[in-house]
From TrEMBL:
This is Cytochrome bc1 complex Rieske iron-sulfur subunit. Keywords: 2Fe-2S, Disulfide bond, Iron, Iron-sulfur, Metal-binding. Its cofactor is [2Fe-2S] cluster. PANTHER family: CYTOCHROME B-C1 COMPLEX SUBUNIT RIESKE, MITOCHONDRIAL.
């Protein structure tokens, strides 16, 4: 008897865990499947894209990292903007600075040219992925 008494709480716990797991699966389906995050998790969207910030915050000859959106925007020449993924192509760190004409990764020292995202200094071997932005009403919009 003592042996069966010891097993009952374990079985009940397993049943409760299984039921909780089914509840989680059912909860995911209310958001349209596991691949779609709930609407609150979506980044804010401006008309025609995601607004990143003021164009005036991106210096000429430099750039700005928008870490939340994982995008870096540069302005190699006055009025000309470029944008790239902020994910370093070496091992996936997020670039954290734009100085001296390059976009810089803090992890192993890779540097990428602000005009085209090409590698200026390794160990990265591939350029940063290009993104598309436009300036509307003084705001940078990721399209
Ligand atoms: S992850 Fe950027 S240099 Fe290694």
């Amino acid at each position: 008897m003592t042996r069966n008494d010891d097993l009952e709480p374990t079985v009940a716990r397993r049943t409760a865990i299984a039921a909780a797991g089914l509840g989680l699966v059912a909860g995911c389906s209310t958001y349209g499947g596991a691949a779609s995050p709930p609407p609150a998790a979506q980044p804010p969207k401006a008309a025609g894209g995601t607004e990143l910030g003021a164009a005036a915050d991106v210096p000429v000859g430099g750039g700005k990292v928008f870490a939340d959106q994982q995008v870096v925007v540069t302005q190699p020449e006055a009025g000309t903007f470029a944008a790239f993924s902020a994910i370093c192509t070496h091992q996936g760190c997020t670039v954290d600075a734009v100085t001296g004409g390059t976009i810089n990764c803090p992890c192993h020292g890779s540097k990428f040219k602000i005009a085209d995202g090409l590698v200026a200094n390794g160990p990265a071997a591939q350029p940063l992925e290009k993104k598309t932005v436009k300036v509307t009403g003084g705001k940078i919009v990721l399209t």
